[in-house]
Design goal:
Layout lengths: L11 E4 L12 E8 L2 E6 L3 E5 H4 L9 E4 L3 E10 L9 E4 L2 E3 L3 H9 L8 E10 L3 H7 L3 E4 L4 H5 L3 H11 L2 H4 L12
Parallel strand pairs: 5-9
Antiparallel strand pairs: 1-2, 1-10, 2-3, 3-9, 4-5, 6-8, 6-9, 7-8
């Protein structure tokens, strides 16, 4: 089995290097929920073509990118942040990383330029698994689970290198797969 760590809220899922599903190819996902009812999370490194101002006309500052959180409910908007002193009502899912909160506060903070792009990340849609589905995918070596990571990884906007950097940070056991080609036939 590729992953020796079990899935849980606040952990990262890193896709195996040859995943063919375009929704998850070379993806890093932050799990926000994990229980007997299933799992939910957001793809951290698939930026959409939209900025938050494109989706919400009452937000004047449009330089905050929106990421494709996953293939489920792409007509919904979600956010994670690391500034609970500015945004109330969020749920802490990992040390210093919060999911959701008072959206009216978020809009006001954006409109008054009080949120930096490394403090919040927006997602259209989410990634979801039904009961037992993620466990089956872990058994099939579809994902590697990481339980230790720097929160800067979650809020980076270097989506091109995120997957590789996270794989290398897992240590010697996994570092070699960071250099695998996306298409093994091209090797």
């Amino acid at each position: 089995m590729l992953s020796t760590i079990s899935a849980a809220a606040g952990r990262l899922l890193i896709s195996e290097p040859f995943m063919a599903d375009p929704n998850f190819k070379r993806s890093v996902i932050l799990l926000t929920e994990y229980s007997e009812l299933g799992a939910m999370g957001f793809v951290l490194n698939h930026q959409s073509e939209y900025m938050i101002g494109d989706l919400l006309p009452d937000i004047s500052y449009s330089e905050l990118p929106v990421y494709v959180g996953g293939p489920v409910a792409n007509n919904t908007l979600h956010f994670i942040h690391r500034c609970p002193e500015k945004i109330s009502g969020g749920t802490e899912i990992s040390d210093g990383i919060y999911w959701s909160g008072d959206f009216e506060q978020v809009k006001e903070l954006i409109n008054t330029y009080q949120l930096k792009d490394d403090e919040i990340k927006f997602f259209a849609g989410y990634s979801g698994w039904t009961p037992g589905q993620l466990e089956n995918e872990l058994t099939e070596d579809t994902w590697i689970v990481a339980n230790k990571f720097n929160s800067d990884v979650v809020f980076t906007h270097d989506e091109q290198n995120l997957w590789k950097e996270v794989v290398i940070s897992l240590g010697q056991r996994y570092a070699h797969i960071a250099n695998f080609p996306e298409n093994p036939a091209l090797n």
